[in-house]
Amino acid sequence: MKIDILTLIPGMFKNVFDESILGAAVKNDILSIETHSFREFGDGRHKTVDDTAFGGGPGMILKPGPLVEAIRDLRRQGNPGPVIGLTPQGVPFTQSVVRQLAGFSRIILVCGRYEGFDERIRPEFDLEMSIGDYVLTGGEFPAMIVIDAVARMLPGAVGCRESVEHDSFFTGPLDHPQFTRPPVWEGASVPEILTRGHHRMIEDWRRGKSLVRTAIRRPDVFSRLDLTTADGAIFQECLNTAPGVEV
Ligand code: ADE
Hints:
By secondary structure, the protein is α/β, with parallel strands linked by helices. The chain is built from 8 helices and 9 strands.
């Protein structure tokens, strides 16, 4: 997958994707990331990309000309995939959006700055996306988050495919609690059931914890789950055996 980033601060992306899983994905040609400064398309000697708002108001607004020219320049290279504007006014970025984006061979991410985009830029976006209900100084951090989430879904990026498919939100509920060695740490023991090697019981225990945790922490997600009768019994059993424990 190729990801192009349009930004005024390409330096923010330096080294961000050099390490760990994303670094390996880049090295193994699963992922390629290119930043482009749309200041190149700015107006006049100063390469101006912003101006004050018509009607007044604080801050500067991104002018339509330079940014739209930069987007069209990338589109002209062919096979552009969706052009995505990162803004707090966009659709919420969720795991289901991540999965859809991971299906494209190329995407273009557009990072805003200042007080926002001139409204006439918007028709150039195929989608506007928000990473949460808060306002950041620009779209650069949101772009990094989008890239991280999408890249780990690409086949071959994460060693064990199963671990991606069992993630929270992929199949529905939040993840169950996880433990590793040592079996006792600062007086806290790993639940005994996980040490007995009975796979069916472990699966049910994990499903129960996962469902109870989701019901308590994210009732909105829980209410959308498609639960089976077996889930109901497992949920009840989990509540009965460890009421209120470590959710
Ligand atoms: N730019 C500024 N804030 C943002 C947000 N919450 N999501 C996406 N892009 C943004």
